[in-house]
Specification:
Elements: E1 3-5, E2 32-36, E3 39-42, H1 54-68, H2 71-78, H3 82-95, H4 103-118, H5 136-144, H6 158-170, E4 196-197, H7 201-214, E5 227-231, E6 237-241, H8 249-263, H9 269-284, H10 287-299, E7 305-313, E8 324-332, H11 334-345, H12 347-352, E9 368-380, E10 387-392, H13 396-401, E11 404-409, H14 410-420, H15 425-429, H16 433-458, H17 477-493, H18 497-500, H19 508-522, H20 538-553, E12 560-565, E13 568-573, H21 576-596, H22 599-609, H23 615-628, E14 633-636, E15 640-646, E16 649-656, H24 661-671
Parallel strand pairs: 3-14, 4-5, 9-11
Antiparallel strand pairs: 1-10, 2-3, 5-6, 7-8, 8-9, 10-11, 12-13, 15-16
Helix pairs in contact: 1-8, 3-4, 5-6, 8-9, 9-10, 11-16, 16-17, 16-19, 17-20, 17-21, 19-20, 20-21, 20-22
Length: about 675
């Protein structure tokens, strides 16, 4: 609930060029590296890297190593089969002695890249298991013509490799869906995520209800956030905590080692305190230590180099409690941060003037810090498909009592824009030339400001009523939380206050954002689904919910029109001010639902507006995308941060952009595989 995924990667809008680092100026590189299946792989640059001090660059290097060491944790969290399957596939790719030409090999190679990109065998958005695309008989040929030593040691023979992998790859009933949040099913028993083993939803809820009772229902503790819950053969339920000496210890020990090195070059005393707190949490696994780490991280604002590292987001848990591992290293964009600082300085005004019922507002907004950053390295759940904005910590009680940190990620947004230039998307899906022109002129800044508002103010706004738990909305929590932050952003981007503060030049920028958001929510985002699929991913559900609700409620006044021209469907906003009014109404209702924990109303909103897909419209959108040859998803390879040595000491770090997806993934598997296949 603390991230914004890139929704404008195909708009074709342009930004003011960000300067390249001095070492990169002489050479032009393509922004898009390759396309396969439904994925577009891009690169990003590190503007201003040369302006950092050598000590800051060494700090960034140490933190990037820590961000890479948790890769196997995330893959194992996603599904218990992932590490074994990845290593089997990589063994074939590196050591297969047969013919590497022709369609079957290309299909195998594409599937391997899809597994790399998705951090496992399930699609990163649809959550369903990805079909290999090559016959089972060909897989047997691949295994038979690959040396035994290329496979994980747990398999003594190739027959064991085939017996293990065949059902996982080719049986559609095995691990069919990673996270199942569908209405009316046992979301735990039907999810293939490795956060739970042999359990039902009722058993999990009963287990953690007992934990909460034992802690006198302390709402400051995120019960189960850093553990796997397992029912053993004798029926007992045990919690395997992710910590040093516990589950995932081998990888966590590596992370801690790099964090210890980072302390030696920390920028400020506060940063040393933050690193010590994170190390302690990794060592103990205690939820109280996690809370202290969050407090220290919140207070660490003076350093230019910053990081996210640990068990953070709960989208991968059907119950919205257990958190996936992620790592992200960044440095502050000093000039662009001024915009965020203006917003955070006026946070109380935005809270006070929200259309939300007064009892759901914070009387005093605390500790809100915001900045624009450039990412140095992505890891775990942030890689290779990262957010473009972050607001942390996630807990509502923490935001109320301590505040939060919000960031907009400038260099990733810039890379998305550069990669989408000239792809024909706007000309195909925008209603007309006036809309195209407005988005080309205003879209980039509008998108940045929208992300600022979402992260800096949206997630930090509002409050839960006393006694309402963070997970009261269960499997609808993440969708509703993202909708709340998006609605806050959409409402205020059109407020005259944005011009008064000098954030936006005119309301035209807001209308560009309205055009883009409604087109995406009502039309273009369904390009990411296969025929017959419904919307599963929380961010997609959120956008569909908002756009469809506004469309339906505004039908009488034709606020939004689904216009048809030359046999094609377009989204046309006829009354922008009326649309803002609808956004305000929905914001008030969504905040009420979140603040009161109204599960029934949350279910009605999500299931009623955020899930179903019109099959005929879907068919049309897919055909139009196919004509453009645009992949609906985009992600990145990381630049390689290399140490500069002086004797045995690291004295600086440099950037190497010359890496492909395959090279990077194999390099990571060779150097950052610390966990056994089955955990």
């Amino acid at each position: 609930m603390a991230i914004v995924l890139a929704t404008l990667l195909l708009t074709g809008c342009q930004t003011t060029p960000k300067p390249q680092s001095e070492s990169e100026q002489p050479r032009e590189r393509p922004w898009t590296l390759e396309t396969f299946a439904d994925v577009n792989v891009r690169r990003y640059e590190l503007p201003g890297w040369e302006q950092l001090t050598p000590k800051q660059r060494v700090l960034a290097y140490y933190l990037t190593q820590a961000a890479l060491c948790g890769r196997d944790i995330l893959m194992d969290q996603n599904c218990q089969y992932n590490l074994s399957i990845r290593r089997i596939l990589e063994g074939i790719y590196t050591s297969y002695t047969g013919n590497r030409q022709g369609a079957p090999w290309e299909q195998f190679y594409t599937y391997l890249k899809r597994v790399w990109f998705a951090n496992g065998i399930h699609h990163f958005y649809a959550e369903t298991k990805m079909a290999p695309g090559f016959p089972q008989a060909y897989f047997q040929e691949l295994v038979e013509n690959t040396p035994q030593e290329a496979f994980p040691q747990k398999f003594a023979t190739k027959e064991e490799v085939l017996a293990y992998a065949n059902p996982v790859l080719f049986d559609p009933t095995v691990a069919a869906k990673r996270v199942n949040k569908a209405d009316g099913v046992d979301v735990v028993a039907t999810s293939a995520t490795n956060l739970y083993r042999n359990l039902t939803q009722k058993e999990v809820e009963k287990f953690y209800a007992a934990q909460k009772k034992a802690h006198k229902n302390d709402t400051h503790l995120a019960y189960g956030m850093n553990s796997q819950l397992v029912k053993q053969a004798d029926g007992t339920i045990v919690e395997r905590v992710w910590k040093v000496g516990g589950m995932y210890s081998a990888a966590i020990e590596q992370i801690v080692g790099w964090l210890e090195k980072a302390k030696t070059v920390a920028e400020t005393p506060e940063q040393v305190v933050t690193l010590n707190s994170l190390i302690k949490f990794y060592q103990t696994g205690a939820l109280e230590d996690f809370n202290q780490y969050c407090v220290d991280w919140m207070q660490d604002t003076a350093a230019r180099i910053d990081f996210v590292n640990g068990f953070i987001e709960d989208y991968g848990d059907p119950l919205g409690s257990k958190c996936s591992w992620e790592g992200l290293v960044n440095y502050k964009d000093m000039e662009a941060t001024q915009r965020m600082e203006v917003l955070s300085a006026n946070a109380q005004w935005f809270e006070d003037n929200s259309p939300v019922d007064k009892k759901f507002k914070k009387e005093k907004v605390k500790g809100l810090t915001a900045k624009v950053i450039d990412v140095v390295q992505l890891g775990g759940d942030c890689y290779p498909m990262p957010p473009i904005g972050i607001n942390l910590p996630n807990a509502n009680w923490f935001r109320k009592e301590h505040g939060s940190k919000s960031v907009t990620i400038a260099n990733l947004m810039y890379a998305y824009d550069k990669a989408s230039e000239g792809n024909g998307f706007l000309e195909e899906f925008a209603y007309g030339p006036e809309e195209v022109a407005r988005i080309r002129e205003c879209g980039a800044l509008a998108s940045n400001v929208s992300t600022d508002l979402h992260e800096c103010l949206g997630h930090g706004s509002g409050q839960l009523l006393k006694g309402v738990k963070d997970d009261a909305l269960k499997n609808y929590t993440s969708t509703i939380e993202e909708a709340r932050a998006d609605l806050f952003s959409l409402y205020y981007i059109a407020d005259p206050k944005m011009e008064e503060l000098g954030i936006l030049p005119s309301q035209e920028y807001a209308w560009a954002e309205y055009d883009t958001y409604m087109r995406n929510g009502l039309l273009t985002q369904i390009s990411r689904l296969k025929p017959g699929e419904q919307i599963e991913e929380d961010h997609m559900r959120n956008r569909a919910l908002i756009a469809r609700w506004c469309y339906e409620k505004g039908k009488g006044g034709k606020v939004i029109e689904m216009a048809s021209r030359d046999g094609k469907t377009y989204v046309k906003v006829n009354d922008y001010q009326a649309l803002r009014g609808l956004v305000g109404q929905l914001l008030a209702e969504v905040q009420r639902v979140r603040s009161t924990g109204d599960f029934k109303a949350a279910k009605a909103l999500v299931e009623g507006y955020g899930v179903a897909v019109d099959p005929e419209l879907h068919k049309e959108v897919l055909a139009r995308y196919q004509q453009l040859h645009i992949a609906p998803y985009g992600g990145f390879v990381n630049p390689l941060i290399e140490p500069v040595m002086q004797g045995d000491s690291i004295v600086d770090a440099r950037v190497n952009y010359d890496v492909s997806l395959t090279e990077q993934m194999l390099y990571y598997s060779k150097n950052y595989s610390f966990l056994p296949c089955d955990n």
